[in-house]
């Protein structure tokens, strides 16, 4: 799939050279076709995003690209390119949803593809010589170029730089994130300013300039060396060029704001356009092509349960699914058979408190008391959620510490690996003894990251039509304690921890995170379980875990 886009780019380069030598085209049109014929397929190759959408784009792209060229003489063909850009936008949206918007570098790439749909619309207007939004033909073609360059390649390159930094095991800095957020919103901000308010145009141009300068500085500071020295040189040329083009844009926007001509449009086309294409976009694309641009760990690399939830879930859910392994040689006693499974360079099971180890390996020998604390912002929602979770008989957390204490029935039993799809799976069901209604239904497993060798907890919660999976990384906490988290540790691209939602066979990263700190205090296990939604802490569960008396 990757080689197909590479070949498209090569053929596109040849086609563009032929157009430049034989067709009588305005220079702005030639700039536009470099993006369409050469750079966009190269970008699709570099970003290396796979799936059904990619296969669809592979089929449609050559038709759309040829049609975009024919639209120079026959406007009707411009609609084929418009359709392709719409599909490209949905491609970006689909990846954004799948990743849950959790990774800024991937958001940059996804939004870059989304913005191309606006460029496709302006290309149609240009082909028909239509004064879209009242602009003359020159502004229309320049706007088409803007959304095929300024709102595409800066975002794409910033995302690819983030991937490169993560592949080196670096944490993405605050300046990187701030520049990325500005790039995400400014193209539309500037477009609105050009149309309705000049002050927005100049403010947007200044902010965009700051974000691109930040990108240039980060590129210069990045440690790309050795055999990739040529890539480093090309990226440095690209980053210097973009500072030149953005400064010209600021000067031009300032002149428009003041009602005077600082740089003429023909001059902007020749200098700004040429530097943007041949100084920034082309060297940058080739530079990133020479790097190993690996996207954040794909969701498809994580083993998920094949079981789909129902409404309600209930204590007999796994029995109804026929998932119970009645012929198991032995019955599991805990969430995991042995904590030794998690042995790694960052976690040593022998260093944790024996009581904590016993709790994870012999969970049925312990009882749990929990005190909830909802964040005030989420408390009104918690009351409504409580009514739903009671009916659903799943993840039915107490709303306040004043809720009556209930006698709990707890059961752990083996599940069929072939039914679940993961290995060594066991269910843990907790129910109210009086009502026989479940409030916690989960299927526990573990899996190993094939790239790092690190083992994760893999906990599936069945929900109507699908489920939710918490993939938790385990490390040490204080003295002899453990820390489990869905949050990224090193921000490295190979990390798999996170909270994922499943509907059918489709899995997405949810904007949810959780951490669990476990320690021993006065011979009692204490645990603090924090949950976040969209980065805001919504619920804290404080546990006291005691060993049952004989």
UniProtKB/TrEMBL annotation:
Pfam (any one): YndJ
Protein name: YndJ family protein
Keywords carried by this UniProt record: Membrane, Transmembrane, Transmembrane helix
Keyword Transmembrane helix: yes
Organism: Paenactinomyces guangxiensis
Family annotation (InterPro entries): YndJ-like (IPR025450)
TM helices/strands, residue ranges: 5-24, 30-46, 53-73, 79-97, 109-131, 137-157, 178-196, 202-221, 233-255, 267-291
């Amino acid at each position: 799939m990757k080689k197909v886009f590479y070949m498209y780019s090569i053929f596109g380069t040849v086609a563009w050279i032929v157009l430049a030598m034989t067709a009588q085209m305005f220079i702005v049109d030639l700039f536009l076709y470099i993006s369409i014929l050469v750079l966009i397929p190269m970008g699709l190759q570099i970003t290396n995003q796979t799936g059904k959408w990619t296969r669809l784009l592979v089929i449609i792209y050559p038709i759309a690209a040829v049609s975009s060229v024919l639209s120079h003489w026959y406007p009707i063909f411009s609609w084929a390119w418009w359709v392709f850009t719409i599909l490209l936008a949905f491609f970006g949206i689909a990846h954004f949803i799948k990743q849950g918007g959790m990774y800024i570098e991937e958001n940059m790439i996804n939004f870059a593809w989304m913005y191309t749909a606006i460029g496709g619309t302006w290309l149609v207007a240009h082909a028909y010589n239509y004064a879209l939004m009242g602009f003359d033909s020159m502004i229309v073609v320049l706007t088409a170029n803007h959304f095929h360059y300024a709102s595409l390649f800066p975002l794409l390159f910033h995302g690819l730089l983030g991937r490169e930094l993560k592949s080196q095991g670096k944490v993405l800095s605050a300046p990187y994130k701030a520049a990325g957020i500005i790039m995400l919103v400014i193209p539309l901000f500037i477009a609105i300013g050009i149309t309705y308010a000049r002050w927005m145009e100049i403010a947007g141009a200044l902010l965009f300039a700051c974000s691109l300068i930040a990108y240039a500085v980060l590129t210069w500071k990045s440690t790309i060396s050795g055999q990739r020295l040529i890539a480093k040189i090309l990226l440095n040329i690209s980053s210097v060029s973009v500072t030149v083009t953005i400064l010209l844009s600021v000067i031009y926007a300032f002149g428009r704001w003041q009602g005077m001509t600082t740089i003429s449009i023909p001059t902007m086309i020749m200098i700004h356009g040429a530097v943007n294409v041949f100084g920034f976009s082309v060297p940058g694309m080739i530079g990133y092509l020479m790097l190993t641009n690996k996207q954040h760990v794909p969701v498809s690399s994580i083993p998920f349960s094949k079981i789909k939830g129902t409404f309600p879930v209930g204590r007999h859910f796994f029995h109804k699914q026929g998932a119970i392994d009645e012929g198991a040689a032995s019955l599991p006693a805990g969430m995991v058979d042995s904590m030794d499974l998690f042995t790694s360079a960052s976690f040593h099971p022998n260093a944790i408190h024996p009581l904590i180890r016993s709790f994870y390996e012999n969970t049925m020998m312990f009882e749990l008391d929990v005190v909830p604390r909802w964040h005030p912002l989420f408390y009104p929602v918690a009351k409504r959620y409580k009514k739903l979770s009671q009916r659903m008989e799943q993840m039915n957390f107490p709303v306040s510490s004043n809720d009556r204490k209930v006698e709990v029935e707890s059961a752990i039993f083996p599940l069929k690996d072939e039914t679940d799809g993961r290995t060594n799976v066991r269910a843990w069901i907790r129910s109210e003894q009086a009502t026989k209604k479940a409030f916690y239904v989960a299927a526990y497993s573990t899996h190993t990251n094939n790239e790092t060798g690190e083992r994760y907890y893999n906990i599936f919660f069945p929900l109507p039509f699908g489920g939710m999976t918490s993939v938790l990384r385990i490390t040490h906490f204080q003295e002899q304690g453990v820390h489990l988290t869905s949050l990224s540790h090193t921000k490295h691209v190979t990390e798999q921890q996170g909270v994922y939602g499943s509907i059918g066979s489709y899995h997405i990263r949810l904007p949810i995170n959780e951490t669990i700190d476990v320690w021993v205090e006065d011979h009692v296990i204490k645990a603090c379980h924090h949950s976040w939604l969209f980065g805001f802490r919504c619920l804290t569960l404080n546990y006291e875990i005691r060993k049952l008396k004989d």
